[in-house]
Structures are given as structure tokens and as C-alpha cells.
Amino acid sequence: MTIHPLRPSNPPALRPEQERPDTTAVYDSTWTEQPDAAAPDGLDRIMGQDGKIYVVLAVVLLIWIGVVALLFRTDRRIERLERRIDRSISEDE
């Protein structure tokens, strides 16, 4: 596996300072403008390629499902042991 160094991406272009609008039409248009979306950088660029992020999410989901299944299984075993102990105590009396 080869690890390639990340090249710094071009910084996003900054918008020039806007003057304070004096009329409502200009004021409304100022707020409706959407900023340019920033290009992904670093880990976002690496994990977004070829759907790698989905593989990571799937592995994490499988780990959580395994932990929850283990907890339920252990809880059921403990319940069975408690019932067994209760029965043996009631038989002794």
C-alpha cells in the first residue's frame, strides 16, 4: 500500500467586502446569495474517493451490532442463572 502526501488545495476565493445596503431590495439580495462550497480537503478527499467512507461506516455499524448482541446474550444468560439459583434455594427450604 502506498501512501501519497496530500497536496494543499487552492484556498477558496474570498468575496470582496460588501457595503451596507441602503434599500430593502439590495438588502434582500445580500442575504439570498449563497457562499461558494469549499472543496473537500484532507481526510474528506481521501475517504470520499471510491466510497471508502461507506466501508468505514459499515465496519463501525457491524461492531456496534456485535456489542449490542453480546450484551443481550449475556443478560439472558444471567437471567437464566438467577432463575436457577432461585429454584435451588426454594427447593432447599
TrEMBL record:
Pfam families: CcmD_alt (PF20077). Residues 1-22 are annotated as: Disordered. Keywords: Membrane, Transmembrane, Transmembrane helix. It comes from the Bacteria. This is CcmD family protein. The chain crosses the membrane at residues 53-72.
